[in-house]
Amino acid sequence: MKKTIKIVTAALAAWILFCGSVFAEGNFTYQGENNLFSESFDSRTIASNSNGATVEQIDGRDVLKLSGENAHLSMKETDTIEYGFSADIRMSDASSGSYAGLSIGEDNSGAYRLLIYPKEKKAKILKNNTILAEKKVDLGDWNNVKIAVKDGIIRAMMNNAVVMTVYDATPLSGMGSSVNANGLTAYFASVSLETESSYYYENFESGAVYSVNSDEIRPAETKGDTSGEWVVQVDEGKNVMTTKGYSAYSKIVYPFAKKEQSNSSAVVLNMKNSDWNAEDGNGFSIYSRYQAGNMSYRLRFYGNSAVIEKVAPSNVVTALATSAKMNISSKNYYEVAFETINDEKGEVTLNAYFDGKLIVSVKDADKPYLRGDYAVECTGEVRPYIDEINCISITEPMYKLYAEGRKQKAVDVYFNDDRVDTTVIMEGTQALMDAAKVAELAEVTVTSNTESGLVAEKYGMKIEIPANSSVYTVNGNEVDMQATAQVINGVLYVPVRAVLEPFGATVSYDDEEKKLNITYDSTLLVNSTIYTKDNVILALEPDAKAIRFMKILGSEVSILGDENPIWTCYYVDNNVRALNATNWVDTSQASFPISYGQRWDMGNCTANSLQAEVTGTSYDENTGKLTIDYSHKDSDVTMYFTLSGQNVYIDSTVKNKSEYPLQFIESPTGWRVNYSKNNTVIVDQIGYAIEYENVNFQQYTEGYMFNGFIVNGDNPFFVHYVEPEYGKSDKKIRATQSEMKGPQENKGFFTTKKGTVVWAEQGESRDAMKVSIGVYDTLKDAAVEWCESNYPQMRTLDEKAQESIRDKMPHSYQLFSTFVKFKDMKKFADALPGMPMHHIGNKTMHKRTDKNGNEVGDYFDPFPNYFPPSEIYGTEEELADAIGI
User: What was the pLDDT predicted at 555?
Assistant: First the structure.
């Protein structure tokens, strides 16, 4: 439901400080309406000054009933005339001339009244008994009716549409309010009085560009051609104001009835624009202090930036301030505000806001413009779509008020980039929507959608979501939804992720923008072979040669196989040997320098699951273990997928049948990870990440600390590998693709790759490194499992750190980042939860020695917990400050 922006008036400031602000829900990012009075009649008592009034129950709620001639009930006397009065009204037994309505500004001399005549289907604004404005209206069973007064401006709204606005140059000053009925039976519910700060407000729901009945405040249009005519049309299911087409020039001016009303004011638009990146000379503009003779301030949007300009007579334009570049979508609606404030020195402060953020601000002290109107303008190949426009009075800069109001912005939902008209309820970071709407988006078959819960099926998967529960089932396996399904006004609201993600959708919530993005390919799992166990969903291509989709429920991450092979074997044939005889390759043969054993694609030296024959498949539903056997002319491969809890364990065994040595097998191959745009992804990095009890010597110097580490909300998603291979003295090796300089120097010593095995000659079999994919409650849990799997003998931080700083250091999770100094890591501190353990690029923490104790260069410690650190990174104090708790 759209609502007008309200900003708390100075007279109420002390009351707010005492009682706390009350903010209303709505589409605007800022909501500052302050409730003065509300009545739901649930106490079933009414005031003694009533005439023909009783309290009854209709449609399950308590309502006030007025019947007879001149039925009247006083509601509340306020300390200001500037407020809005609203109620839900139902009328029956009407005859010609009978009415029901609301009175505001009431005292012994009269009142402003908004009266609804059901027989005539008319609404009228009256001052005492004089009609100021009237209009034909559409009526339903219940109608939400509102009258608002601000400094002589009276506005009438019905069912969320602004229907009439009129100006009274000699306004009333009474402070009472009442509900009225005459010649019919009227029912009133949800009566409310709220502060009012809008001098002008339109939401175009009535279908008209403006609702004003008074010349003093009627908007004035100018246009360069017929395409510049302002019209109301439907966009994304709502009425908006736009131009007929692309016009060279089109402007509409919104005047103030009294010029002093603009002293401290703002214009606020809920809008989108066809091109925020228009070239200079084109674009969308908002004018403040607009006067004849080109005297005004202008907020102009072009090139994805905003500039505040001063327009002087003869159209001399001076740029006062420019915002930084913004990332703005032409598909989204934003709240844009331009604020001008006079101060006691005679200077003017100008502030521009974009979705609640102050983007540019400047003060003008050089013959500033102190009065004037607001206007909006588009020039060139640009069309604005304005959902609401609001000219308001302010008592303090809006950035102070936005801080609270942003929390009340309604969440916008986008499905495959198209806006969805629906209501979202947030529970923490989880979004809930009407179960019927979510099921429609997922294209699932709904077998039950009641106040008891939702049951739906698709692709052989059945989800059951009970109402008032945070646990649901997928094919009978219980899963934590991280939010509770709720019934509100008879409608079941369910966590969006719980319904959509099992079927392959990606759901991402941007709290800053209050935007829910859903991406879904409804054909993704068609004809897939789907396995489910505990919280894991694994979908393979029908021939079991590629992973199509993997989902660990409880994580905001999904994995798409992109039809890439489940496994790929890499062999070192003669072509590869020749090309890699030295560290560098002629650029005529390769586009970049390569190292030994890396350019497998230069020869006929790979085999993968897409080229192989599947000779057997078995799945144990009790253990969740899937086994797939493949046969290829060069290798036989067996893949094992074990689904357990919130983990997937992937193993592979390979037998080399080729005449060429098998350097390694990689599995899985080339997956793609989808995740929320706000989450942090730490991608593949070469990290020298080997841990030894004896740090004086490293047999292998290259390694992956981990392949992928994704921080998503409260549940980290983590991928790591466990190696079966050992180096000299049975030391566990952690390594990856070769960076060696040639076969003569390093014969027989090849490093492993993610999910790989070390060298296998023809006829030999090897087990690949074990891949573990999982979701953990905390990053520390992920770190502990990784460390225990890979380095069971690793010492703790407390054992390694100097005693003087142990209490300042974190106690362990991994973050791999590239930086220059310890102090540069501080930017991660606020972004990541828990206790970070940073891993430092490809440079080193310590000097390295060979097996004889001779210094041979820098040594990289994957865990920054040997001290003192290398001085190139900074001091111990800087390290403690960067990653301390």
Answer: 77
Instruction: Say how many domains are in the chain.
Output: 4
The rounded mean pLDDT for the chain is 76
Which of 328-332, 413-417, 638-642, 696-700 has the highest average model confidence (pLDDT)?
638-642
Cis preceding-peptide flag for 792 (omega within 30 of 0): no
- d(CA 531, CA 526) in angstroms, rounded, equals 14
Asked if residue 430 and residue 357 are part of one domain, the reply reads no
pLDDT at 813 (0 to 100): 37
Asked whether residue 540 is assigned to any structural domain, the reply reads no
Q: What is residue 811's predicted lDDT score, i.e. its pLDDT? A: 39
Tell me how far apart the alpha carbons of residues 714 and 149 are, in angstroms, rounded to a whole number: 47
Q: Which residues contact 77 (CB under 8 A, 6 or more apart)?
A: 175, 176, 177
Domain co-membership, 143 together with 55: yes
Q: What is the pLDDT of residue 395?
A: 80
806 within a domain of the structure (yes/no): yes
Contact (Cβ atoms closer than 8 angstroms) between residue 772 and residue 754? no
Amino acid at position 809, single letter: M
Per residue in 196-250, pLDDT (tens digit) is 889 999 999 999 999 999 999 999 999 999 999 999 999 988 899 999 999 999 9
Q: Which phi-psi region, left, alpha or beta, contains residue 682 (left: φ > 0; alpha: ψ -120 to 50)? A: beta
The neighbour count for residue 224, using CB atoms within 10 Å, is 12
Residue 645 lies inside a defined structural domain of this protein? no
State whether residue 804 is helix, strand or coil: helix
Structure tokens at 544: 């079991």
Q: For the chain, what is the radius of gyration of the CA atoms?
A: 35
Q: For residue 9, give the nearest of 75, 77, 79 by alpha carbon.
A: 79
d(CA 776, CA 292) in angstroms, rounded, equals 65
Task: At 754, list the tokens.
Answer: 């993610």
pLDDT: is 814 or 303 the higher one? 303
With residue 240 as reference, give the H or E element that holds it.
strand 238-243
CATH code for the domain of 236: 2.60.120.200
What's the token pair of residue 744?
């003569």
Q: List for the chain the helix, strand, coil content (%; round to 5).
A: 10, 45, 45
* Judgement on whether residues 128 and 219 belong to the same structural domain of the protein: no
* Mean predicted confidence (pLDDT) in 302-308: 95
Q: Tens of pLDDT along 620-679?
A: 999 999 999 999 999 999 999 999 998 999 989 999 999 887 877 777 776 665 543 333
Mark whether 186 and 278 lie in a shared domain.
Answer: no
pLDDT digits (tens, 9 = 90+) for 104-128: 999 888 899 999 999 999 999 999 9
H or E segment at 579? helix 574-579
**DSSP code at position 769:** P
Same domain, 469 and 369: no
**Position 343 in a domain:** yes
Give, for 797, the enclosing helix (H) or strand (E).
Answer: helix 797-800
Per the omega criterion (within 30 degrees of 0), is the bond before 219 cis? no
Q: In the prediction, which pLDDT does 808 show? A: 52
Domain with residue 424: its CATH number is 3.30.457.10
The Cα–Cα gap between 750 and 735 comes to 9
For residue 159, count other CB atoms closer than 10 A to its CB. Answer: 18
Helices then strands, counting H and E runs in the chain, come out as: 10, 63
**Span 780-825, pLDDT tens digits:** 566 667 666 665 655 554 555 556 655 554 433 344 444 445 565 5
Cα dist from 727 to 675, 739, 793, 859, 864, whole Å? 37, 17, 15, 18, 23
Residues 141, 49 share a domain: yes
